[in-house]
Design goal:
With 474 residues, this protein is mainly β. It contains three helices and 32 strands. Strands 1, 2, 6, 28, 29 and 30 form a six-stranded mixed sheet that branches. It has a four-stranded antiparallel sheet with strand order 3-4-5-7, with no helix packed on it. Strands 8-9-10-11 form a four-stranded antiparallel sheet, with no helix packed on it. The longest helix is centred in the last third of the chain and has 42 residues, at 432-473.
């Protein structure tokens, strides 16, 4: 009996194609900062790119249709006083983006519906809690207004952006720099890769390490770890002989990997991008000129090599479009935004099909923009998987609601949290004047806090500019 040599897979013939030159974004000074993040974030409305900026940190936010040459004076998002290291679009609001910077702050920005017309220097909220630069920002996949940040102070902070508060601080779990943090599919767990060569699975609300693997990859260069939809963990790293590796792990038993594959001896860090709908992982090496892609299945060897998309130019960074931003009529299953030194080039991954009809085997229901939980529910211990939507008629974006930050008043009296005594007071005294005074006080305090934040930011900026003037004068 003849053995089947070629494995059956509908993704075996996936091919990549770069768009024409006039559909690229040209004349962009991509950031030169030495940090292994992707420098680019994309959603169905905008592409955001971290750029070189004098006198602080900035990033561009371009509407997807604004292709061609980008004017040097095009407005930027420029509130940070140090280089921006990482950016991430909110999965539940296409107008909200978070940024982490060398100035030790995280800022959350609201982009106007039609893009920027003037430089944006006022964030919706500044999140201060790290003592060293912030290299990772990542939104919770299913709960509204929850943002994670990780800094070079080896801390992970989970924020409620709606109130501007740091709710969870994981500070004693990592003895060295954190290379990557990934949320599980429903956001109940985190997996991290650290410079101490350990991969950890963490329950952030219990502040507990659920599982860990020492020397997941034995090489000294940076690792990456991401959660897959089935709860397994996919890692990339380097062997002792500095060969690039990928590995698959079960979270309930991390003693031995499900599989390990060695790839090549290049030295660029492999950035993994995962599509939970098709179980395909795309690997983009920083400084490489190729994107490799693999299908993950339940049968050995578990991680199946599909193909490689290669170009001549090396990539400085990479953006990955969420599924709802793809063109389903062209059987597009992934779209990347590859950063060159001076431009951003979209790359489209397609499954060749003869029919023009909707291919439901390629497009199972995917995560939509609606959150499954509110922030308070998640912090109280509730979990929820993503709310799925069908792409059959293409994704049509709805109007996003504005991000409102209601900062809790530190000076609030404790009686505000105890309704019983208030009800007894009501019987004797008319509460109207005190309520009005409290409201007025809260408003004044809010304004005071916002002005203070602004003054601190401007002070830092002035100090940096003075340093630069002093250097130039010398």
């Amino acid at each position: 009996m003849l053995r089947r040599v070629v494995r059956q897979s509908k993704f075996r013939h996936v091919f990549g194609q770069a768009v024409r030159n006039d559909q690229c974004y040209d004349d962009i000074r991509v950031s030169r900062v030495t940090w292994d993040s992707s420098f680019c974030a994309v959603n169905p409305k905008f592409v955001a790119i971290i750029i070189d900026a004098s006198g602080g940190g900035a990033f561009l936010v371009l509407p997807l249709q604004k292709t061609g040459r980008i004017d040097k004076v095009y407005p930027t998002v420029c509130g940070h006083t140090g280089p921006v290291l990482d950016i991430d679009w909110c999965p539940h609001n296409d107008l909200v983006i978070a940024s982490g910077s060398e100035d030790c702050t995280v800022m959350v920005w609201q982009i106007p519906e039609n893009g920027l017309e003037t430089p944006l220097s006022e964030p919706v909220v500044v999140l201060e809690g790290h003592s060293k630069r912030v290299g990772i920002v990542s939104w919770h996949p299913t709960a509204r207004n929850i943002l994670l940040s990780a800094g070079c102070d080896n801390q992970i902070v989970i924020w409620n952006v709606g109130t501007g508060e740091a709710m969870i601080n994981l500070e004693d779990m990592h003895p060295d720099v954190i290379f990557s943090v990934s949320w599980s599919r429903n956001g109940s767990l985190l997996c991290t890769a650290c410079k101490d060569k350990k991969v950890r699975v963490i329950d952030p609300r219990k502040k507990k390490v659920v599982a860990e693997k020492d020397k997941a990859h034995e090489g000294a260069r940076p690792m990456r770890a991401i959660f897959l939809a089935d709860g397994n963990i996919f890692t990339t790293g380097f062997s002792r002989m500095s060969e690039r590796q990928l590995a698959l792990w079960k979270t309930d038993n991390m003693d031995e990997p499900i599989c390990v594959q060695e790839m090549d001896s290049s030295n660029g860090v492999l950035l993994p991008f995962y599509d939970p709908d098709t179980s395909i992982v795309y690997l983009c090496g920083k400084g490489d000129s190729s994107i490799r892609y693999f299908e993950i299945t339940d049968e050995a060897p578990f991680v199946h090599y599909l193909s490689t998309f290669s170009t001549k130019e090396p990539q400085r960074g990479m953006g990955y479009m969420p599924k709802r931003g793809l063109d389903v009529n062209k059987c597009e299953i992934a779209r990347f935004y590859k950063l060159h030194e001076r431009k951003c080039e979209p790359i489209i991954m397609t499954v060749p099909r003869k029919s023009d009809l909707f291919q439901d085997d390629l497009y199972p229901d995917t995560a939509g923009p609606d959150p499954a939980l509110e922030a308070e529910e998640w912090f109280a211990g509730k979990n929820g998987g993503p709310i799925l939507i069908s792409l059959k008629d293409g994704y049509v974006s709805t109007k996003s609601r504005d991000l409102k930050v209601v900062k809790t008043n530190v000076l609030e009296t404790k009686t505000a949290t105890k309704p019983e005594p208030i009800s007894t007071v009501k019987k004797h005294v008319s509460p109207q004047p005190s309520v009005k005074i409290e409201d007025k006080l809260e408003e004044v305090l809010r304004e005071f806090k916002s002005l203070r934040d602004r003054v601190i930011l401007q002070d830092r900026r002035i100090a940096r500019l003075e340093e630069q003037v002093a250097k130039v004068a010398m």
